[in-house]
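Re: that chain you flagged

S.,

Sorry for the slow reply, it's been a week of failed gels. I finally had a moment to sit down with the sequence you sent. For the record, here it is as I used it:
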Amino acid sequence: MFENTTYEAIRDRMLARVSDKLDKREGSVIWDTHSPTAAELQILYIELDTILREAYGDTASREFLILRCRERGIAPYPAVRAVLRGEFTPADIDVTGKRFNIGSMNYRVTEKTGDGAYQVECETAGAAGNRYLGSMIPIDYIDGLQTAELTQVLIPGEDEEGTEDLRQRYFSSFAEKAFGGNAADYMEKTNAIPGVGRTKVTRVWNGDISPSSMIPSADVSAWYEGIIGTLEGESAAWLTAVYTAAAQKKLTTAGTVLLTITDAEYGPASDTLVAAVQNEIDPEGNAGDGYGLAPIGHVVTVKSAAAVTVNVEAKITLEVGYSRESVQGAIDEAVSGYLLELRRAWADRSYLVVRISQIEARILNIPGIVDIQDTLLNGAGNNLTLGAFEIPIYGGVSG
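Prediction finished late last night. Pasting the structure tokens below so you have them in one place:
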């Protein structure tokens, strides 16, 4: 705003207010007294311009954006540690609490999940914890240990929320109020859970079920009366609860919510992450009772977005001096980057479309590639339209 209010402009305005009867040339007393004052005033205008920039959400730097967000009850998502699957031999050895190393990362075994299988947490918070898989070296001696290996990322680690993502959340807080189990509330709370990337909320997701069809008929009632006496324990209790609820017209589709999620790297969520989110939002043992973040009466089901592998076939013409091997890495990066962009936008769209034109345009931008033609996606020459809960995963480019 004050970019034109320079030292020279301020000094000239000040000198213009002095009578021409006095000497105002450079080196004169008038000049020497006004010049440093103009320099100080320029500094004040620079500071004032900075204050104005930092006072608004769309121009504030991270430090001051965080202060603005506090007024809306928003804070940056902190960095979280990656949780991985570790496999150890022999299977009967107990390594709970032990520390291991791969490269520059240290890991601690936190929980046993099966014979020789454990959950392992990276000691360094952030996405760097997702980087390594393979053989681990024990930091302390473990008697009898034969092998230790990280085999899978269960809950991806995340870096602290980026400035532009935080800025977007700040503006979104004005557009839609997150309250009482509305869609914005579910997205905000679910996305804040460590390891979750994006969330798609579907209300009354079992609305295709007719409540009237669940009311038992005379034949069903006769079948129930005949069989209930032959059952005992959990089977009898379950059948009685379902039959009684149906007979008393208590079964309804209202209050059901489906949360479909991706992990922090915008890929399919692991079973471990899905279970963690389910337990946080609406524990299965107390569905609808309000023991999680979901309001009382909301029965929430958490699922992972389904992965659809995208295989690309195309005839690629190269410039002289280039080989397919020399450009393959750039091709993989370009196409996988495009699919990542789609996955990032998945929660905001009804469905995703993988477009041949986009893939061809990105491949043509790679140095050394002259032309591309006859492009196929999963064997078809059309754009690939995915379902509402499907996301594209890169399968490779061939041809």
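What I noticed first: The chain has a mean pLDDT of 90.

Talk soon,
D.
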